[in-house]
Amino acid sequence: MAGTTVADGGLVERAFTAAAAGLGVEPGSARHTEHLAHVRATMGESKISVFRRLFGDEARARRANAAFQEAYAGLVEGGLVTPVPGARGAIEELAGSGRTVVLATGFARVTQDAVLDALGWRDLVPLTLCPADAGGRGRPFPDMVLEAFVRTQAAEDVRQVAVAGDTSYDVLSGVRAGAGVVAGVRTGAHADPAFRAAGATHVLDSVADLPALLTGAR
Questions:
Q1: Is residue 164 within a helix (H) or strand (E), and if so which, with residue range?
Q2: 6-77 maps to which CATH number?
Q3: pLDDT by residue for the chain (218 residues), tens digit each?
Q4: Rg (CA), the chain
Q5: Element (H, E) at 204
Q6: What would the CATH number be for the domain defined by 85-214?
Q7: Where in the sequence of the chain do the CATH 3.40.50.1000 domains occur?
Q8: Residue limits of CATH 1.10.150 in the chain
């Protein structure tokens, strides 16, 4: 969601900084710079997985994740998230053409719901998924893509599934799931070289271009 259909203006990094400070990682320190680089590189991955690698033991990772969720939710409630231009229209166009749209995220459910509520998107799609809904591993594993395929029963073959996302982890999860279309979008964390290296079938300027891609107009 963030970076693909939702513009958050760098709130992930701001929330991470707040969470890390609570565990003794001072903003501006060499450790903070190193951690922030890792957060940027792993955008799209389950946040608890990121914190496990950064902070080592499970208890510290969970403390960091809880602090991140609280900080991000506070920023969201402050009105600091907006739809990516054209994203809602693209979702509605896809749904209107008979396709089933699922919104997936690396955030925890409480954070995802805060974003959906802030945008008024609770009823926009029939299914939203976070890592906990699909076994807990999140991206770059294929689990959420396959969970969407199984739960919606909207396709007979996983090759009929299209995946779009702004990170290499979005792309890799779609490739690993066997999706027929796996598109990187240029509105978020990663760029064309990362998308191509992960196996993207297409690269789009925005998710707003996805309907045209799927109808063969581009």
A1: strand 162-165
A2: 1.10.150
A3: 888 999 877 888 888 888 888 888 888 899 889 988 888 888 777 788 888 888 888 898 888 888 888 888 888 888 888 999 999 999 999 999 999 999 999 888 888 998 999 899 999 999 999 999 999 888 899 999 999 999 999 999 999 999 999 999 999 999 999 999 999 999 987 899 999 999 999 999 999 999 999 988 44
A4: 17
A5: strand 202-204
A6: 3.40.50.1000
A7: 85-214
A8: 6-77
